[in-house]
User: Fold this.
Amino acid sequence: MSMVQRNIILLGAPGAGKGTQSERLVADYGIPQISTGDILRNERKIQSDLGKEAAEYMDSGRLVPDELVIRMVEKRLAQDDCAGGFILDGFPRTVEQADKLAEMLQKSGKTLSAVINIVVAEDILAKRLLGRRKCPGCGANYNVFFSPPKATEQCDSCGAGLEQRKDDNEETIRQRFEVYQKQTQPLVDYYRSRGVYAEIDGEKPVEEIYARVRQEVERLCGKV
Ligand code: AMP
Assistant:
């Protein structure tokens, strides 16, 4: 039996909208989102050894060591729900991670279908990150600049107090941008040369961006 796989990477600087676009892809294609940032934040919450080791890197805006993240992703990709595809959000972030991902996929007889880079100017990214808030109760997302809640720092639908990510402060944001430029930006040429790459203007309204993301997914992965 042959099955279409949608093995997708979403590239983009912090705040580009990878998470937002992933949510829509999950809903439309029924493939899981694998966000290494989310997995690491969860490991911290449950205070696992991995979470404890990752904490200082995350809080300073630096990357968690490759071997830790690679092991984590390898485990996740081996799970059954990734058989028809997956959306990697926030991984790979270094050439080393990209090389290891290629090895992992090859070992399991898979190929990468699409690498979609969501491009946004740094001043806009900074405002998105600084204004970003999340409801810990229902998971609703807000931005105090672009889509504020009706009552200050309070969720419209469930009333819970909104939370801000610890690394969404000015100093850490600056560090994350620097890390992105130095360590992750080289992946653009890496994937472009492999013929699976597409670039999307991430400054448009969310639904417009998503229409483009879908177009590229269908072009690069093929229709079912
Ligand atoms: P994110 O939610 O993708 O912005 O990630 C938050 C933080 O988790 C990053 O600043 C890193 O410290 C860490 N992290 C997430 N993904 C990776 C990765 N692929 N490699 C190394 N560190 C990561």
Notes: The chain has a mean pLDDT of 96. The beta strands are 6-11, 33-35, 85-89, 114-119, 132-134, 141-143, 197-201. The domain at 6-122+184-221 is CATH 3.40.50.300 (Rossmann fold). The chain is about 50% helix and 15% strand.
